[in-house]
Design brief:
The protein is built from three helices and seven strands, in the order βαβββαββαβ. With 134 residues, the chain is α/β, with parallel strands linked by helices. The protein has a single domain, classed as Peptidyl-tRNA hydrolase (Rossmann fold), CATH 3.40.50. The relative contact order is 0.21. It holds the Pfam family Pept_tRNA_hydro. Its EC number is 3.1.1.29. InterPro entries: Pept_tRNA_hydro, Pept_tRNA_hydro_CS, Pept_tRNA_hydro_sf.
């Protein structure tokens, strides 16, 4: 599960993907397990939920380069694009509304575009979190 955002701009609506992962890690009692993984330039936490092993990833890069971290983590942890869940902001959804999307285009989202490019696939499942338009 990858939370997209700008690492240096935590707390902004554009980095809501990282905030969702922080919340998920707390709910799964993995919040103390975050560690910097230089191999993929990301913060990583390993946990389990309902019998499934999860790798939580928060890239330590700007949004437009998040895909480099996600692709490196996928290689390190042996994940295929269809195993990856991207959590990211969506300007076209009202604040707080969520939707799940399987594959498809980036729809103008630079972080998703970066992931599609780095993974050479658009098969990732996406949790789109509405942030509304300013």
């Amino acid at each position: 599960v990858a939370g997209l955002g700008n690492y240096g701009l935590r707390g902004t609506r554009h980095s809501v993907g990282m905030a969702v992962l922080d919340r998920l890690a707390r709910q799964l009692a993995a919040a103390e397990g975050w560690r910097a993984d230089r191999r993929c330039c990301a913060d990583v936490a390993l946990t389990a939920a309902q019998g499934a092993e999860l790798v939580l990833v928060k890239p330590r890069r700007l949004m437009n380069l998040n895909g480099l971290s996600i692709a490196s983590a996928a290689e390190i942890y042996s994940f295929r694009p269809e195993d990856i869940y991207l959590v990211h902001d969506d300007l076209d959804k009202a604040l707080g509304k969520v939707a799940i999307k399987l594959g498809g285009s980036a729809r103008g989202h630079n972080g998703v575009r970066s992931c599609i490019s780095a993974l050479h696939s658009n098969e990732m499942t996406r949790l789109r979190v509405g942030i509304g338009r300013p």
